[in-house]
């Protein structure tokens, strides 16, 4: 069966950055299963998998605009430490959800200096070119329940 919309696809993969550093990979004997055409994986990878079948290998380079987008410097802000409930417990690398007028957004603390925390709302892989290598393990029709829920079960 060819990969296309409304298929459940299982892939084994390794994801690297431009330096060849492994960023992520599927666990051994636990392929990633997703519902194709429903935005469950980044667009650049999903597009490259169209037409492949179980057993096919792939090597795909995905630019930031087809992955997590470019970094947006306006999403990095300086926040006074007094704004936080327990500023003495803050550490660089801490992740939390910030409540904004646009809703809740995940952020990470990237620096603490001069009574302020630098918080970054960019996705950690924003601006990164991604290199996928892997194999298609299985392709099947999605069930009605999977189509209703918008993800593989």
TrEMBL record:
<dbReference type="GO" id="GO:0005737">
    <property type="term" value="C:cytoplasm"/>
</dbReference>
<keyword id="KW-0963">Cytoplasm</keyword>
<comment type="function">
    <text>Also involved in hydrogenase metallocenter assembly, probably by participating in the nickel insertion step. This function in hydrogenase biosynthesis requires chaperone activity and the presence of the metal-binding domain, but not PPIase activity.</text>
</comment>
<dbReference type="GO" id="GO:0003755">
    <property type="term" value="F:peptidyl-prolyl cis-trans isomerase activity"/>
</dbReference>
<comment type="similarity">
    <text>Belongs to the FKBP-type PPIase family.</text>
</comment>
<dbReference type="Pfam" id="PF00254">
    <property type="entry name" value="FKBP_C"/>
</dbReference>
<dbReference type="InterPro" id="IPR046357">
    <property type="entry name" value="PPIase_dom_sf"/>
</dbReference>
<protein>
    <recommendedName>
        <fullName>Peptidyl-prolyl cis-trans isomerase</fullName>
        <ecNumber>5.2.1.8</ecNumber>
    </recommendedName>
</protein>
<keyword id="KW-0413">Isomerase</keyword>
<keyword id="KW-0143">Chaperone</keyword>
<keyword id="KW-0697">Rotamase</keyword>
<dbReference type="GO" id="GO:0042026">
    <property type="term" value="P:protein refolding"/>
</dbReference>
<dbReference type="InterPro" id="IPR001179">
    <property type="entry name" value="PPIase_FKBP_dom"/>
</dbReference>
<feature type="domain" description="PPIase FKBP-type">
    <location>
        <begin position="4"/>
        <end position="80"/>
    </location>
</feature>
């Amino acid at each position: 069966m060819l990969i296309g919309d409304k298929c459940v696809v299982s892939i084994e993969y390794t994801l690297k950055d431009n330096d060849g550093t492994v960023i992520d990979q599927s666990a051994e004997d636990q392929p990633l299963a997703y519902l194709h055409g429903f935005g469950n994986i980044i667009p650049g990878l999903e597009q490259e998998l169209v037409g492949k079948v179980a057993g096919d290998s792939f090597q795909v380079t995905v630019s930031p605009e087809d992955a997590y987008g470019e970094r947006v410097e306006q999403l990095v802000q300086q926040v006074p430490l007094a704004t936080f409930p327990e500023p003495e417990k803050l550490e660089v690398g801490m992740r939390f959800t910030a409540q904004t007028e646009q809703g809740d957004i995940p952020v990470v603390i990237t620096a603490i200096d001069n009574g302020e925390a630098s918080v970054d709302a960019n996705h950690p892989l924003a601006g990164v070119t991604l290199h996928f290598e892997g194999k298609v393990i299985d392709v099947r029709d999605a069930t009605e329940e999977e189509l209703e829920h918008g993800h593989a079960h």
